[in-house]
Fold Superoxide dismutase.
Amino acid sequence: MLVALGVLRRCSTNVVPAVSCLLSRQKHTLPDLPYDYGALQPHISAEVMQLHHSKHHATYVNNLNIAEEKYAEALSKGDVTAQIALQPALKFNGGGHINHTIFWTNLSPNGGGEPEGELMDAIKRDFGSFEKFKEKITAVSVGVQGSGWGWLGFSKDYNRLQVVSCSNQDPLHGTTGLIPLLGIDVWEHAYYLQYKNVRPDYLKAVWNVINWENVTERYRAARK
């Protein structure tokens, strides 16, 4: 569901109160990182993290707020043409904000290794082994053409884990219906300053900082 339409439905089933809700809502803000920019070194450099968080993610947040303000104005005027024209900006910047907010929590300076307990059991059930899962999501992420994400998601319909990719900043749930558990950003801004054009080296390094506790928490929440 697109961002503004989701806000509209949460606000009210009536257009006028919904417009008021959109206009009075709090703006989206850039979330703080739960660690310092240099905490993931040497696997992800402080320079990459600082630019990625304070510049790229901040731009998505800023542009999302602008797009939502314009959408609220178009909604209040009954300008359907403008509403439709704003949908790509809402999807792109809203997805960028959602995806990165998940990504930062998926990483940790105390990460790496393998998951335990119920998540590991599910990975073995659905992929055969942790190594096979790791190989699959790495291959999917390497294979993203241009910019995008590799994802581990959970299907409530089938009660199974799935690995998929999404282009650009398309949000996983809105695009596939899967609940996001682990996202791997393979836009060049996530790694180019450190790993140049060798995406596989970045993907090899990122496993050292995956926060399996966070991924497990998301798995438990998704199953409820």
In short: The CA atoms of residues 181 and 217 lie 9 Å apart. The chain has two domains: 46-106, 117-223.
